[in-house]
Amino acid sequence: MKRHYSGTPRETIPLRILDFFIDIYVRWFYRKREKAPISAVPKVLIASLGHMGDALTVSYLFPIIRQKYPNAIIDIISPSWCKAVNEHNPYVRHTLVIDHYLSNRNKIGFWQKLKRHYQTFQQALPFLRDEHYDFYLDVRTSYGVSHFVLPFTNVKKAVGFNRRGMGGFLDVELEIPQKDGNYHHFEAYRALLKEIGVDTKLEEVVPYFTIDASITWEQVQSKLPLSVTKPYILLFPETGEPHRQMSNSFWVNVLKEVLEKSDYSVVLCGQTNLSAQIVKGIDRATASQFSEKVIDASKKLSIQELAFLSTKAECALTLDSFPEHLCCIFCETITIYKASGLPFFPIANYPVLLFHTHFLSKNAAYVRRNVTVHYREKIETPEVSQLIVAKITTEKKVL
Predict the structure, then answer these.
(1) What is the CA 302 to chain-centroid distance, rounded?
(2) Which molecular function term from Gene Ontology is one that the record holds (predicted)?
């Protein structure tokens, strides 16, 4: 079949050259491997070498698989930076850690990323070589796929997408199920599931995240510089890609009005000093009038503790990133997409108000009816700011 690669010519030409040699190897050697019937209790290896948001939404597949195969054994291939998402998941037997160099956002050099990729792959190899899987599913449609593990383990049916090379190792190479260049990422997951006899619909998916029972309100409070008073809202002003972030002045203006028009406290969450800059901006804008109601929780709380905090929040303000997907499991969420659209729309338990600039998604219908979507050519405007403030301060629980 003709492969439709994802990426620029600089990225895809090396993939085409690589696939030329892989296809020769597969034709003469790899396809001759012995296969056996699918087991009554299948073992499933699911690969997701992306980031934390990917790891979270991929986990929604696990209970769906168990509905079809109640005793299925599920192992996953996941990078080290997703450990916090996977470690308490009740459906996962074993996690194989591989830090793919293409997905590695650590502030290290390219060769260090390659070294880390090689080291983690070597550490995973003994387990892979000893295992026999019925199914292999790789959810990645861009950047790093994990098809390179297939010659080193035993898999009866390998399914994945052919956009990022090494598709020759797959038994089933899938195309992206897109319409007019647009699709939701769960439709790609659904295509994979169909190949193992499992069918589901996006509107039926129930998102979840397992919070460790040992997490307590007192434990969370003890890590913060100020006591969190209820009711409160959460702000996550960061993403893994800074170009998708809003300006500090935008958040300062929004939070200033929220504090003035409501009795909410605000908890700012993240992994950088961005929140501290926003807190300073609020103090200047309000003459420190609300200093006891603005808490900088950046770099102080674990993912488990942030999830716990979201269960008691009135609302979360997020961007297109992992916090959005996490918060909308547990509370109402307002989210802003500065550079993406339908492919990453949230799978939510609670109502979501979403603003985006993605032209392809301008008129896209979204089957999750608790997500209200607004397209804007520009996001950082007084109009959007006022709509966000109004939703928080006047409608409160009803977004």
Answers:
(1) 17
(2) ADP-heptose-lipopolysaccharide heptosyltransferase activity
245: nearest Cα among 282, 279, 265, 270: 270
- The fold of 9-204 is Rossmann fold (3.40.50)
Answer for the pair 307, 273: CB distance below 8 angstroms, yes or no.
no
Model pTM?
0.92
Cα radius of gyration rounded to whole Å, the chain: 22
Question: Residue 315: which of 266, 282, 387, 243 has the closest Cα?
Answer: 266
Element at 191 (helix H, strand E): helix 185-194
CA pseudo-torsion sign 118, 120, 123, 125: negative
**C-alpha angle 100-328-282 in degrees, rounded to nearest 5:** 95
Where are the CATH 3.40.50.2000 domain residues in the chain? 9-204, 217-392
* CATH topology for the 217-392 domain: Rossmann fold (3.40.50)
